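haha ok so turns out i had the wrong file open the whole time. this is the CORRECT one, sorry everyone. sequence first:
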Amino acid sequence: MKPSGPKPSGPNTNTNNAGTGAPRPPRGLKAGFKRPGVKENAHNINTDIRAREVRVVGEGIEPGVYPIDKALEMAAKAGLDLVEIAPNVDPPVCKVVDYGKFLYEQKKKAKEVKAKASKVVVKDIRFGPHTDDHDFNFKKNHAIKFLQDGCKVKAFVFFRGREIVFKEQGEILLLRFANELEEYGKAEQLPMLEGKKMLMVIAPKKK
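then structure:
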């Protein structure tokens, strides 16, 4: 008698290659395969540069416009790379530099810019349309300290219920506030009404 049970569907029944010693195929792209249209480098470098002549710059390099062969020769003699840093001008600008170091410096600068941008803090200063001089000056002194610390100040007048009829008074108050802070900061916009708030943003002056 033949053994009972389901028959194998084909010659390759063991998809896990268990016990066969055969390695599993690598996930993702095969080694040496490049996605169509995706460059390996972020810039054209060395023999990837297609222009016939380029403007060459770099430390210890005589700047000028050179045929691409001459520019590549200059980079090779310096033991460095020829990197196309401005491809959309005529002729393209290329820099003789260590490409790895060039990328590192670019990433470092990008991180510094991002860090500075993320450090911008916005402080709220709230007024009512009938704020008296004592309260106004108290809040102005707080705003001065915020601006000196490098923070932005979002000053706004909040209107409760029917106080919205005093929106003109709120605008005058905010303009006065910006005027008295002129030494420390600059208004990024004129007072603007948003719902029940009229607001303006004052940025610290660059040192």
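The first helix runs from residue 68 to 77.
again sry for the mixup
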